[in-house]
Each structure stands twice: as structure tokens, then as C-alpha cells.
Write a structure and sequence with these properties.
Blueprint lengths: L19 H11 L4 H19 L3 E2 L4 E2 L4 H13 L4 H16 L10 H11 L4 H11 L5 H15 L20 H6 L10 H20 L6 H4 L2 H27 L2 H4 L5 H8 L11 H4 L3
Antiparallel strand pairs: 1-2
Helix pairs in contact: 1-11, 2-11, 3-4, 5-6, 6-9, 11-13
């Protein structure tokens, strides 16, 4: 006779998405993000944009110089900036190093990968088509990872004109992400191809800013600054997903394990490829979780 399963002491019994404890957990999680956190993360995105991405940018031609020494030296940092795990950053870096190393030194500038970057960043086709073509060329990698690389390069180079498409924003393979949660459904995100998918992610991202205005995190100090306004949507959406992730995780875990979770602002930083900031744990905010 099979023995009855023992419930883990880590995971609490729950009744489902309508459990009042879940709503309480989400509300408590929201209190851990402030307007200053969103502004601070936005400022960190601006600093990285200027330090890392604009260093490889030819302002005269308004193009990212993928052949430049700065781009080659900074590629590992760029890979870390466009994905949220060290493993994914290594996968991207190793892929392009391996491809370039397979060519003679005088031909490495002609590596197919570099040509893919040129077409993505400096091509003449509409951006959604360039993104789809980039993913098609790099089909040896996970499609989601290539989308993060493509949209991350475009957004961090020219944030005013482009947006992110990460798996935590919208993952069509699992039907999850913060965008369908804010939109209330996946309807406006479903697409027949990657070009249309990229365009739809941009449209829903823009619409989600209406939701941001009602959270108290969207302030004049954030939006009246032209540099901050370019990255405000990315900072807010990362914070919103962190609230959801933290709230649902703490809803499932017992109190002593909640205190082991990172702070919400640092969760958001990780999603955006930023370094976490060391800070004291404010356990009083988590006691009710």
C-alpha cells in the first residue's frame, strides 16, 4: 500500500488564485516598491546605456558599430545586459566566440554573426522584419534567447524607438508573462509570426503604461525627464513582474523562507541585467507575507 504523501513544511496549502491570502501577499509585495525605486532603476539603465552601448555607437551615422574594438571588448557585458541569467549570457557569448574563432584573423570581421548584427541594427527593413530575420539566422539558439538578444540590443541602443521582448514580458511558448497579466488576456499578444509578435509586444507594452499611471509609481519626476522617460516602461514592467513573482512565491512559502527572497527592486534589476544593490533586509515588510 502506498504511503500518503507528506506536505512539505516549506509549501503551504492553498485554495487557488482566489485565495484571499494571495491578494494580501500581492498587496504587501506592492508596498516594497516605491517611486524612488523605479526612478533609481531607470537611472541605472541610463548610465549603462551611455557607458556600454553608446560607446559602440557612431553618432554621425546613427549606427551601432559592430566591427569596432569597443563592441568586441564589451560583448560579454552586452550579453549580460540583455538577458537575466549568467548561464544565458555565457551561451550567447560562447556562441559568437566559437563562430568568429573558426575564421582566419583577417576574416573574422566577416563572420556571419557580425553580418546578422549589422542587418538587425543598421538594416533598412522595418524593425519587426529585422528581428524575425535575426532569429531565423540564429536558429541554433533558443528562440526566446535570440529575441532577448535582438530586442535588448535595439532597446538599449535606441530606447525611444524600440522595446524589449523578454520571456518575463511575454513567452508565447508557455502563454505567460507580465504583459498578459496587465492586459487581462493573451488575445492581443497572439501572433502568426515573429515579426507580428514583436509589433504586438510593442503595442501591449505601450498600453500597459495606462496601468502604470494608476499604481502611484508613475511620477512627474520620472516622466518629465526625457532620458528617464525612454526607459521608464522597462523599469516599471520589471518592477510589476517582480511584485507578481514575489507575491505568488511568498503566498506559497512559509514565513521563515520569505525572508530569504531578494528584495523586489533587486529582483527587477536582475530581470533587466543590472547589478543588484546591497541593502539591509527589511524583515518588517515581509512579516505579513
Amino acid at each position: 500500500m502506498a504511503l500518503p504523501q507528506r506536505q512539505s513544511h516549506i509549501v503551504k496549502q492553498k485554495t487557488g488564485p482566489d485565495d484571499p491570502e494571495l491578494e494580501k501577499s500581492l498587496q504587501n509585495a506592492l508596498t516594497q516598491i516605491t517611486p524612488d525605486d523605479v526612478i533609481g532603476i531607470t537611472d541605472e539603465l541610463i548610465e549603462r546605456h551611455e557607458r556600454l552601448f553608446l560607446r559602440c555607437f557612431d553618432s554621425a551615422q546613427h549606427k551601432l558599430e559592430v566591427d569596432s574594438a569597443s563592441f568586441a571588448l564589451s560583448f560579454a557585458d552586452i550579453a549580460s545586459a540583455v538577458t537575466h541569467t549568467k548561464a544565458n549570457a555565457r551561451t550567447i557569448t560562447n556562441y559568437f566566440i566559437l563562430e568568429s574563432n573558426g575564421l582566419p584573423l583577417d576574416m573574422q570581421g566577416q563572420a556571419p554573426a557580425l553580418q546578422s548584427f549589422r542587418d538587425l541594427l543598421n538594416g533598412e527593413s522595418p524593425t519587426p522584419l529585422r528581428v524575425a530575420k535575426f532569429v531565423e539566422k540564429l536558429n541554433a539558439l533558443d528562440t526566446r534567447l535570440v529575441l532577448e538578444l535582438a530586442s535588448g540590443l535595439l532597446h538599449n541602443t535606441s530606447p525611444k524607438d524600440h522595446w524589449l521582448w523578454t520571456r518575463w514580458l511575454w513567452d508565447p511558448t508557455t502563454g505567460t508573462g507580465i504583459l498578459p497579466l496587465l492586459a487581462g488576456s493573451t488575445h492581443n499578444l497572439l501572433a502568426d509570426n515573429l515579426a507580428d509578435g514583436y509589433a504586438r509586444v510593442g503595442a501591449v507594452t505601450a498600453l500597459s503604461m495606462k496601468f502604470a499611471e494608476g499604481t502611484g509609481l508613475w511620477t512627474d519626476e520620472l516622466m518629465s525627464n526625457e532620458k528617464r522617460a525612454q526607459f521608464a516602461n522597462s523599469a516599471f514592467l520589471a518592477c510589476a513582474y517582480s511584485v507578481y513573482l514575489f507575491g505568488t512565491t511568498s503566498w506559497r512559502l512559509n514565513r521563515e523562507f520569505n525572508n530569504l527572497l531578494p528584495s523586489l527592486p533587486n529582483m527587477a534589476r536582475k530581470l533587466l541585467g543590472l547589478k543588484k544593490i546591497k541593502e539591509e533586509t527589511n524583515s518588517s515588510l515581509r512579516e505579513g507575507l
